[in-house]
């Protein structure tokens, strides 16, 4: 495996290239006789894949629209440039996270010509686990309190920034006085963490999982501890929706097509997204797979609407949002009439422990296998790993839910507690030590003891 720093440089270069590609493709002239629809998306923000990367790769929108339209896809690093292009009338439909969505809606409401509507959800987590604070491996910082007087990288105005501020406040720190915040894009922040220029990095999916999977970071704070919903969604220019309601409905029908594909074939969907983005499939599947950190469903439920409403005061407090009429911004009238419920859920019977799969299930992905193996609980997962290793089979990835938050994480990157016959995984060492019973052990020791 290449060194961590070179890996980050490669990914950063890929992000830069994709951003440049997104900026230039808008200038392409529409094909003869075809009307152009421009879609802005973030290929590596993988909780928007059903309105972006996966949707594009599967061609669902083109199939829904037919030959009358030419679909132009623009790939960006964050939601901010998508919003800027929408305000300029150069992007018709976009997808982004909750804070950028609110900023998009607020900016759009400054004039009748620039108004936008949030029309669907892509991926969400009701506890906030899509955002995570990480530190370098072996860092002396073991808790948020340890960040006092230190520098933290985040993307100001993002949900990851919101996580950082709220989590620091809960830890008794003043985010403005006790910590220096560097406003950096994710790849820049990742490099800053590796070089030691920042003590921690607070970012959104998929950066925390990517860095941890590569052994370049460890979790300091699991966003699920905050227990504040975070979501991603689809937004459209109101003027475009008024003039082309059938296209907007076709887009959402295609988004539902992509969502159902992800539900039914989550492993294949992760491989497709990995192939399109250069992200490891194991990282994509951590977030988007069965029992993944993200749940993919289109409806704008009351709990998610309330989550947006609760986000507004924070965005106002940091000066990136003047105000927004949420009732005018959120519009579910374009959604398809019938939609299923999330099917990417682990089920069946554990083949090792012979017990039904329920809450607290883990998952084992063996190299060369086209399907994964469910595990009824963390102990059963460790036994499955041990059996695989004894038979000479290579473990590609193993996933377990955090004992406290339920956040799904890599089993080999978790901190384990051996308490009698129980094996308890935690995403952070602080949480494992706070448990207060049993013995804190690493993954290898847990597998050996299973």
TrEMBL record:
The signal peptide, as residue positions, is 1-26
Organism, by scientific name, is Actinoplanes oblitus
Q: Give a single Pfam family match.
A: NMT1
> What is this protein's record name?
ABC transporter substrate-binding protein
Signal is among the record's keywords: yes
Q: Which domain of life is it from?
A: Bacteria
- Keyword terms: Signal
Q: Which stretches make up the SsuA/THI5-like domain? A: 127-269
The record, for InterPro entries, names: SsuA/THI5
